[in-house]
């Protein structure tokens, strides 16, 4: 295999977004370029946990914390979806007041629902870590990762609270 064809198989960008544990800065890294997790602000460096399939652009475990509880959701789905629906409701209301015909407002709402569904298909997936909230974009979907679960998220929030309380008790 030539170098060119190997490079062509890599995704154009394979992005990681995470928060520096030391200074709280939000950091963006392109994992297809480098696996060094060093903060640009405070120079704190974390050990990366790449997993076996990162070369195939599949996330197996969280690169930042090594946790293996990850979920998949649509990137910006709520924002774009809410915008279209709100816009449609406004247009439908205006259409209702200016038109004696009930068909127009209904048509606007139906079309916005179709636009929402079409948009949903085009919005790419994003994988996120329950434990440290790191986000991964541009990778292939790992079938082992399900959709967001409030139950799992709450379990990790409880663990984080316990850890924070234990740390506070230790410091006092
Ligand atoms: Zn930092
Ligand atoms: Zn993580």
Description:
It contains 4 helices and 7 strands. The protein is elongated and about 70 Å long. α2 (77-98) runs antiparallel to α3 (103-122). The protein is α+β, with helices and mostly antiparallel strands and 172 residues long. Strands 2-1-7-6-5 form a 5-stranded antiparallel β-sheet, with no helix packed on it. Strands 3-4 form a two-stranded antiparallel ribbon. The protein binds zinc ion (2 copies). Residues 20, 22-23, 25, 39, 41-42, 44 line the site of one zinc ion.
| Order of strands, widest sheet | 2-1-7-6-5
Largest sheet: 5 strands, antiparallel
Calculate the mean pLDDT score and round it.
Answer: 84
Number of domains: 2
Radius of gyration: 22 Å
Number of strands: 7
Q: Report how far apart the termini are.
A: 60 Å
**Low-confidence segments:** 1-11
Helix content: 40-55%
How does the helix and strand content classify structurally? alpha+beta
Total count of helical runs of at least 4 residues:
4
What bound compounds does this protein have? zinc ion
| Shape verdict | elongated
Order of helices and strands: HEEEEEHHEEH
β-strand percent reads 15-25%
